[in-house]
């Protein structure tokens, strides 16, 4: 066998092995949970309730409810693919300053939550958080804003297709795992290899709630073009907020641009409709 032919077969073999690994280890590539806690809302001077939310399939989710004085609404916070709720304390403080109560939860397998993360599991976990707000705290859907960042945006969008939140906020969102995989692994037919979908685009097409899309041109992980494409696909009423900074700290780097943009969106779409269930 010639060296050229040998190198050809080796390249083909490595290519096929890479494709198999990409298919087989998607969970490991997408879900990056940590167990260690970096603090609580009390670390930044916020009162909070530590909760355990139960899912229909028997998992127990670690969660915090952080109340705001004279709350104008409640954020149901779906976080990204890495870390746990303790990595989102700065976001919780920003929402609190905007007069919003926050329910944030860890997906199964994250933080102190039981179980193993999966796409379907995240959807089930988000629904359990929604049910807690409606059934246990007595909030009406008109008082709930669903918020998702990065992978959490796909979870939040899916949740909004099954319920009727007052508004939906998607920050640094991607179109779908398949679209992201195609851009990262260009030599593979990534769309055919991805069995984890997280299809934000497909979910967004079904949502009638007001939508705010937030994205930075400097996002080094999820291209700005994804946020633009999602905004075009979203139904009216909708709003786009361009921030600056990288993927993980753009909300902090942007400062008042970020908070004033969200405040403007809330004034347009939340305050006239807040309320609780009728007795």
Task: Kindly report the CATH topology of the largest domain.
Answer: Rossmann fold
Amount of helix: 25-40%
Q: SSE order, as H and E?
A: HHEEEEEHEHEHEHHHEHEHH
> What would CATH call the class of the largest domain?
Alpha Beta
Would you write up a description of this structure?
By secondary structure, the chain is of the alpha/beta class. It has two domains: 1-30; 33-272, Alpha/Beta hydrolase fold, catalytic domain (Rossmann fold), CATH 3.40.50. 40% of the residues lie in helices and 19% in strands. Helix 4 packs across helix 5. It starts with a helix and ends in a 10-residue tail after the last helix.
What would the keywords be for this entry?
279 residues, alpha/beta, Rossmann fold, 2 domains, eight-stranded mixed β-sheet, two-stranded parallel sheet, 11 helices, 40% helix, globular, disordered C terminus
List the helices and strands and how they pair.
Layout: H1 3-24, H2 26-30, E1 32-33, E2 49-54, E3 60-66, E4 73-78, E5 82-83, H3 89-97, E6 100-105, H4 119-136, E7 144-149, H5 151-162, E8 167-171, H6 177-184, H7 190-193, H8 200-204, E9 211-216, H9 224-233, E10 238-243, H10 250-253, H11 256-269
Parallel strand pairs: 1-5, 4-6, 4-7, 7-8, 8-9, 9-10
Antiparallel strand pairs: 2-3, 3-6
């Amino acid at each position: 066998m010639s060296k050229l032919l040998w190198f050809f077969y080796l390249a083909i073999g490595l290519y096929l092995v890479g494709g198999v690994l990409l298919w087989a280890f998607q969970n490991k590539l997408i879900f990056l949970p940590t167990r260690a806690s970096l603090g609580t809302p009390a670390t930044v001077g916020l009162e909070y309730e530590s909760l355990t939310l139960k899912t229909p399939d028997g998992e127990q989710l670690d969660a915090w409810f952080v109340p705001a004085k004279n709350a104008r609404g409640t954020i149901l916070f779906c976080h990204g693919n890495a870390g746990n709720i303790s990595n989102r304390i700065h976001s919780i403080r920003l929402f609190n300053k905007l007069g919003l109560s926050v329910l944030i939860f860890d997906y199964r397998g994250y933080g102190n939550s039981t179980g193993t993360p999966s796409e379907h599991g995240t959807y089930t976990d988000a629904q359990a958080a929604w049910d807690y707000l409606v059934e246990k705290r007595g909030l009406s859907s008109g008082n709930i804003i669903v918020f998702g960042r990065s992978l959490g945006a796909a979870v939040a969008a899916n949740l909004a297709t099954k319920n009727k939140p007052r508004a939906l906020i998607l920050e640094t969102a991607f179109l779908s795992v398949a679209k992201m995989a195609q851009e990262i692994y260009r030599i593979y037919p990534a769309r055919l290899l991805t069995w984890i979908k997280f299809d934000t685009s497909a979910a967004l097409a079904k949502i009638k709630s007001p939508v705010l899309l937030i994205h930075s041109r400097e996002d080094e992980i999820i291209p700005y073009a994804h946020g633009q494409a999602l905004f075009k696909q979203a139904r009216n009423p909708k709003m786009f907020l361009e921030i600056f900074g990288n993927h993980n700290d753009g909300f902090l780097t942007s400062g008042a641009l970020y908070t004033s943009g969200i405040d403007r969106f809330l004034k347009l779409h939340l305050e006239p409709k807040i309320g609780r269930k009728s007795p």
